Amino acid sequence: MNQKKLIWQIFPPNLLITLVAMLAVSWYGSTALQKFYIQQLESALQARAYLIRERVSELMTEGRLEELREFCRKSGREALTRITVIDLSGKVVADSNENADIMEPHNSRPEIIAAYKGLTGTSIRLSRTLQENMLYVAVPLKRHGHNEKAAADLAVSGALRVAVPVTAIEQTLRDVQAKIALGAIVVIFAAALVTLLVSRRISRPLEAMKQCALRYSRGDFSQRMCLHKGEAVSLEVATLAASMDRMAEHLNERIKTIVRQRNELEAVFASMSEAVLAVDTDERVISLNKAAADIFAIDEKQASGLLLQEVVRNIDLQRQVRQILENLEPLQDEIILQHGASERFLQTNGVPLQDGNGRNIGVLVVMNDVTRLRRLENVRRDFVANVSHELKTPITSIKGYVETLLEGAMDNREDADRFLKIILKQTNQLYAIIEDLLSLSRIEKLSENEEVELSLGNLRQILEEAVQTCQMKASQKNIRITVDCPEKLQARVNPTLLEQAVVNLVVNAVKYSEAEAEVIVSAAEKKLDDGTNRVVISVRDFGIGIAKKHLPRLFERFYRSDKARSRKLGGTGLGLSIVKHIAQTHGGEVAVTSQEGQGSTFFISLPAAGKSEE
Ligand code: ADP
């Protein structure tokens, strides 16, 4: 685009107009002047011709040729006029300046032709005789008579021509033209100056407005159209400035609103617990929120603009995005992200992303981390399977023996007695499992609802009561249980639950120890490495011990290190799981150390009661 400054659009055309106008005026003026001069001169020459015509006619009619020539020479000299007399044949009869005899015939000259016709002829041209521009005026000569009236009627007998050089007129005209040209130059300069000033005056406020508009375009609305106060600007410019100011104000307001709304949206976006990811139609990330950045372990600022494959290395999600881009329909799915050894389950909700005009611009995926949910579901599923399995074993056994009895074993008193004892044992096992399951669910429910009441309790007393409960079983195997606990040791506990936990541990210790063995139940306050005080209860036995590989999973429900032995001893596989839950409801943990064949020690560590609470 050919763009010129305003001043260059106003200044040159104005100058050109002035120039053309001046030239036209000068040309017209000088032409008119020249015409006027020539007319004046023509009249004067005509007057001179008329003055001498009478005399010339007379001399010519009378044939006084020499006298005529003398008259012409004399009159011509005095009047500074060339006088030529031509007869009807065109021959020059007399000439004031030249020898008439050697002059060429003059009948073809235009002024002469006009005079022959009885008119006054005029002509300006180069005199071939004198080599000079001359103005010629010719009048007809009539034969001279005494009677005036008769003379007027006489036919033309020749032509009297008077001429003056026009060089003087041309010189005068040139002088006048030079003066006009000088005047024109002065006017042009003045006009140029005025045009310059006017165009600068028009362009200056526009220039200021341009600067201001440039600032607006950069988003700087701090200043309004900076027209100088008191500066005379045209109504149009002032109106334009005012409307641009209004436009800037509106724009500023709009931008502020948009920025505020964007900030609000960003805040919402960032604080959402759901991971949100937006990609464009080329599968490049438009944006993702903090939750998404955390899940995919990427810096949220660096992610935008990257390809989805570079941000999320998950084929399923990429496929899902592609499918939504193709079908333009929402899609729900679930993907599994591998996080090192662990898995993360994400429920995804993808929708096509549209701009304000309804044009498709990409895909928005909202992801919910359902890992906990899935894990819980898995735990529940495993639990149901385990429970069914645990219940199935005694029930199958009971069913088998009842059928055997019905099929005739009842008749044999000895067999019947044996089978019924087995059935009783299996029933007890069932009962024990159900008892344990019920107490497990009760404890879970209490801790979930935070309904476990904790109070400062004397630990020694609790341990002794637990030991008391197990005393009978211990005595059967002749096992000695000792309690080692400071008299005044206290902790914030639920005595009933804690006693149950200790009982479970002591029962196990007795169960998995040889006869005559020893079990030590102790409790003490210990300072941990992190500086916190804990009350640690331990139950130590010197029995069969547990292989190292079982230790990490020992506290899981139904986990048994030795299934056959556990069943034989009437174990449910839930005892340690109950202990773990009780410890957790107290804000504590469980642990175990063991050496196969040498015995095991189980620990319950609880937060120590603060001194102030004692
Ligand atoms: P169970 O009712 O089978 O004893 P628990 O949950 O109490 O169930 O114990 C889980 C498993 O831990 C037991 O089957 C057993 O193999 C092992 N165990 C628990 N306590 C001891 C212990 N003191 N000595 C050796 N093994 C033990």
Describe the structure.
This protein is of the alpha+beta class. It has five domains: 7-172, 2-Layer Sandwich (Beta-Lactamase); 219-271, no CATH class; 273-369, PAS domain (Beta-Lactamase); 380-448, Signal transduction histidine kinase, dimerisation/phosphotransfer (DHp) domain (Helix Hairpins); 455-607, Histidine kinase-like ATPase, C-terminal domain (Heat Shock Protein 90, 2-Layer Sandwich), CATH 3.30.565.10. Helices cover 53% and strands 21% of the residues. It has 16 helices and 17 strands. The chain has helices spanning 6-62, 65-79, 110-116, 148-153, 167-217, 235-271, 290-295, 300-303, 308-311, 315-327, 371-406, 413-448, 459-476, 495-511, 563-568, 575-585, and strands at 82-87, 92-95, 121-127, 132-142, 156-165, 275-280, 285-288, 331-339, 342-354, 360-369, 455-458, 480-484, 490-493, 518-527, 533-541, 589-595, 599-607. A five-stranded antiparallel β-sheet has the order 2-1-5-4-3. A five-stranded antiparallel β-sheet has the order 7-6-10-9-8, with helices on both faces. A five-stranded mixed β-sheet has the order 12-14-15-17-16. β14 and β15 form a beta hairpin. The protein is rod-shaped and about 205 Å long. It starts with 5 loop residues before the first helix and ends in a 7-residue tail after the last strand. The mean pLDDT is 87. Bound molecules: adenosine-5'-diphosphate (ADP). Adenosine-5'-diphosphate (ADP) binds at residues 508-509, 512, 541, 543-544, 546, 554, 560-562, 566, 571-577, 600.
